[in-house]
Amino acid sequence: MKTHVVRTRRSAEEFPRSEHLAKKIADLAVDPVEVPTDTAEMVINRIIDNAAVAAASVVRRPVTSARAQAVLHPFRPGSTVFGLPATERVSPEWGAWANGVAVRELDFHDTFLAAEYTHPGDNIPPILAVAQHTGRSGADLIRGLATGYQVQIDLVRGICLHENKIDHVAHLGPSAAAGIGTLLGLDAETIYQAVGQALHTTTATRQSRKGEISSWKAYAPAFAGKMAVEAVDRALRGEGAPAPIWEGEDGVIAWLLGGPTAEYHVSLPGPGEAKRAILDSYTKEHSAEYQSQAPIDLARRMRDRIGDLDQIASIVLHTSHHTHYVIGTGSGDPQKFDPNASRETLDHSVMYIFAVALQDGVWHHQHSYAPDRAQRPDTVELWRKISTAEDPEWTRRYHSTDPDEKAFGARAEITLKSGEVIVDELAVAVAHPLGARPFERAQYIEKFRTLADGVIDTAEQNRFLDAATRTAELSAGELDQLTFTVSDDVLASAPVVPTGVFDWSVAAPGSN
């Protein structure tokens, strides 16, 4: 890996394009280095993982709305949409949009946490959509996804966005554009322009994950993927990007990140160095924000030691800066204690999540967030006894570059009314690569089977899993097999959504 110093440059300063971060990323994308076998196998795992969570969300309202928009943009060759027959194709940017929302809606796919945090599986919908549309092979797709994961994870390691209240999808636009560039075998200049455009159009504030969190949390990465597809299309037509996009005097670093004096260190693979970053990421066993994964497992482990939960006087979760300030009481968000809060908000309340995991001993992607579950009086009472506190040691471990000590967990101190204090801690989730039961291919398949149950019939599950496990062998034009179809009855169970602008010639505005 070669580390690049990234900082603001004055317009009058000599700063050759070869030194721009966007050019370094473009050079990485065009490197013909082979994809390692373990990287390729993990790419397949994540294709299965994305489809699993998309199956679980396919009839939820935000996903239904996105799908309704996409089908109004039919296109040939086009790309597929989760839930619909593979023969029903839409324009690739709209396929990326619909599938991106389906993958992200339940906050249940892979994650990587470092200086910034992200869900690198968000690269799969836009890169796969373009691969289907352009008739690429499975090997091409794997190469493109290896690049997408590498770029996003390396940006996440080196550039913190959230400290400046910028949403993490600002790293996704460039990574997806770079991955599409690798997929299509584009030249470095075209990829350079696409990366710059994608960053410029996908930089937004973190209010999407603060306060009253709405369905835009699921739409934000889908929007970034859609913008990446469009950025590549414009760059192919010879249209350029603002440059230098990160380092310019009025660029992203100067005005949206650390400012003119800030300096970032971004390490990228050098020429001929394999793209292995996907192996450093991890998926979720539970449908909850990643910092909640270990606390869920910890609550399940502690509940038998507590016995009668009514005897709890208080619970303090000692954890990292990130967990405390983003999903804990350090956020200052009263909505994180609101029984009427949205699913998206409850998903970002570790206090709620720990309370329900203690009471139920399980976590379910639907039942654990149901309004009647959140509004149970005994749950609300327990929930409001829970707080978080930043512990410098957990913060240090969160940011550690040593994978053996990097941690995303917490120490729980549960004080009973008797005065007895029960203490336990868990550094990483059970399903983490260093956890008690790391996810391997069998667990990814089991997750798919579980979430597809009652949504995708068994024969279609089998067909998809067979195709997915053979991704590297799929020939040009066969990537339409990497989707799933559900029955008309399943789709009919989705909520009816109002019509929008794209339906204007189809129905009266506002009609159903």
From TrEMBL:
Underlying gene: prpD
Domain of life: Bacteria
Entry-linked InterPro entries: 2-Methylcitrate_Dehydratase (IPR053420), MmgE/PrpD_sf (IPR036148), MmgE/PrpD_sf_1 (IPR042183), MmgE/PrpD_sf_2 (IPR042188), MmgE_PrpD (IPR005656), MmgE_PrpD_C (IPR045337), MmgE_PrpD_N (IPR045336)
SUPFAM superfamilies the UniProt entry points to: 2-methylcitrate dehydratase PrpD (SSF103378)
Residues annotated as domain MmgE/PrpD N-terminal: 19-264
The keyword Lyase is annotated on this UniProt entry: yes
UniProt keyword annotation of Thylakoid present: no
Family: Belongs to the PrpD family.
Protein name: 2-methylcitrate dehydratase PrpD
GO molecular function annotation: aconitate hydratase activity
UniProtKB keywords: Lyase
Stretch forming the signal peptide: none
Stretches assigned to the MmgE/PrpD C-terminal domain: 286-468
Catalytic EC class: lyase
Enzyme Commission number, as recorded: 4.2.1.3
